[in-house]
Amino acid sequence: MEDQKIIGIDLGGTSIKFAILNQEGEIQQRWSQETNILDEGSHIIPDIIESINHHLDIYDMKPTQFSGIGMGSPGSVDRENGTVIGAFNLNWKQLVYPKRDIEAGTHIPFYIDNDANVAALGERWKGAGDNQPDVTFVTLGTGIGGGIIANDRLLHGVSGSAGEIGHVTVDPKGYLCTCGKHGCLETVASATGVVRVARDMAEEYAGTAKLKELLDAGEEISSKIVFDLAKEGDPLATAVVDRVSYYLGFALANIGNTLNPSFIVVGGGVSAAGEFLLDKVRVAFAQNTFPNVRENTKIRLATLGNEAGVIGAASLVLENNKD
Amino acid sequence: MEDQKIIGIDLGGTSIKFAILNQEGEIQQRWSQETNILDEGSHIIPDIIESINHHLDIYDMKPTQFSGIGMGSPGSVDRENGTVIGAFNLNWKQLVYPKRDIEAGTHIPFYIDNDANVAALGERWKGAGDNQPDVTFVTLGTGIGGGIIANDRLLHGVSGSAGEIGHVTVDPKGYLCTCGKHGCLETVASATGVVRVARDMAEEYAGTAKLKELLDAGEEISSKIVFDLAKEGDPLATAVVDRVSYYLGFALANIGNTLNPSFIVVGGGVSAAGEFLLDKVRVAFAQNTFPNVRENTKIRLATLGNEAGVIGAASLVLENNKD
Rg of chain A's alpha carbons, rounded to an integer? Predict the structure, then answer.
């Protein structure tokens, strides 16, 4: 039915965000609760079921008024079976069954995908992606995640690793990544990567720079501090941001050469550095893209912030109804 | 109708190949003719129309017995409008109208895409792609072309450049490419690229090697000669093939990290070097891929040879009937 609503859930290690949306992706109700990761995360799914049923009571709504529930989850997601394994920030080490349990507990069809894919769908639908058929999303956080929409559909690949943009190799002789290989984009352009590059460049830096002073004094630095100092003109911080931007622009250029999306949308904590970061990224992007791609694929900042998760989760329901 | 036939056309600079196929992609008739590129290629489309109508007469078939004609073409193809521009090996410098003219001349619906995309569809459907939903194809010829099928659909991107694998940057400080940027895969791993790498490495090579002798004697060398000498153990030729394979493996690894296809199918003249080449490519691919991709995305040789074009062109008809 056209006026059916959708529930979007953004499941994270600290909070679970919920929203009720209409078919146009407009949020009509929203709420959230803390994530209880005690007892191997065994309270999480019952909490979600209770929260949904409780809020349907409050709003005097019935399960039949919903076309589905969509959820973005950390960990390794099996979309067909609706299971998750290895979501360590939820304490979900063993296989859990969100689809089976939430459908039984709410009587609403349930769809699930990983959080980066879901955020990609959200930004594409209602954010910087302008609802175009070809949009790539990259999120620069503690790690780097990604999601690719092509021909209006999310890509998963043969074993669910499509969009692993954080593990694109940008420097084959570079830092060892947690994934076991060297020189992944994540090792240099995630929040932790930026700090790693800063520490390494500081060691070899001979001049005077505030960033070097902070590091030499043993201060905790963050990627935000590095970007803030670069914006103030600190020479070492500028060199760090230039190097990080180069790697990011190189990786996004080859994604552009391969996929030629309308937009490559950049989100996540590191993207708070804004156009200051993107302007530098665009230089390396232009150097490394085929002319038609350089002219037609645009790099943009994400616009939805925290809401990308619930909106994208809701669009997962529409995505699955296309099948 | 299920028993309708399809006509596949592979339009090239020296010959035009035709085939009549059934809906399962089995070739039932085939013929070809020389490409007449005189008079700015103005004879090509009339020749195609005449050839089709002539062969339908011979086989006593009517236009209504065909669900469509598919054609792969060089140049820049506008799929929606069915036009081509800048196909220099056909002398088509100006805009030509294959769809308009061939539909008017044969009364059969006509679909067109560029030759690399069409070959990708062919290899995916009846060749090394095992008809999987996610298959990437790369063709190593005079240049390097590519085509990407994801979620069962060919990718084009916002401006038709999806799959420009030849212009993935593998060495930002590398050779200048015809496209205007530096270090494109095509500059080192196409047939001409292999020879370029050989000439450059020979200049710096101090030892004794047959390949160096040939080059020093001013002999014409080809990529085939380089691979043949490497297979015989020639040290310089081996070093050249190792470098070429490294770049190819690096580029395919990042395509794997981005798309996680079932297969990356390698075709074109240079792929005649066979498993000798692919085994080396797989080393660099393994070094630069995320573990899940390394385990699940396989590199394979193309199997259809010259027939990929007509088979893929035919599948273009099926592809378009999905819309």
Answer: 21
Q: Mean of the pLDDT values across residues B118-128? A: 97
Residue A320 pLDDT grade (very low, low, confident, very high; cuts 50, 70, 90): confident
- Which class does domain A5-121+308-321 fall in? alpha beta
**Which pLDDT tens digit goes with each residue over A303-318?**
999 999 999 999 999 9
Q: What pLDDT score does B60 carry?
A: 96
What is the per-residue DSSP string for A182-244? B-BTHHHHSHHHHHHHHHHHHHH--S--HHHHHHHTT----HHHHHHHHHTT-HHHHHHHHHH
Q: How confident is the model at residue B320 (pLDDT cuts 50, 70, 90)?
A: confident
Chain-chain contact of A151 with B150 (C-beta, under 8 angstroms): yes
CB pairs under 8 A between A and B: 175
Residues 253-292 of B with CB under 8 A from A: 253-255, 257-262, 287-292
At A116, is the secondary structure helix, strand, or coil? helix
**For domain B5-121+307-321, is the CATH number 3.40.1180.10?**
no
- Condensed to tens digits (0 to 9), the pLDDT of residues A153-172 reads 999 999 999 999 999 999 99
At A74, is the secondary structure helix, strand, or coil? coil
Host H or E run for residue B15 = strand B15-21
Contacts of A300 in chain B (CB under 8 A): none
How far is A27 from A192, CA to CA, in rounded Å? Answer: 33
Does CATH place domain A131-303 in 3.40.50.300?
A: no
- Across the interface, do A150 and B162 touch by the CB < 8 Å criterion? yes
d(CA A157, CA A317): 20
Instruction: List CB contacts of B232: < 8 A, sequence separation 6 or more.
Output: B210
How close is the nearest chain B Cα to the Cα of A184, in Å? Answer: 8
Average pLDDT over residues B262-276: 96
Q: Which among B156, B167, B259 has CB closest to A162?
A: B259
User: pLDDT of A190-228, one tens digit each?
Assistant: 999 999 999 999 999 999 999 999 999 999 999 999 999
Domains A5-121+308-321 and A131-303 share a fold: yes
* pLDDT for B2 beyond 90: no
Coil, strand, or helix at residue A31? strand
Find chain B residues with C-beta within 8 A of A169's C-beta.
250, 253-254, 257, 288
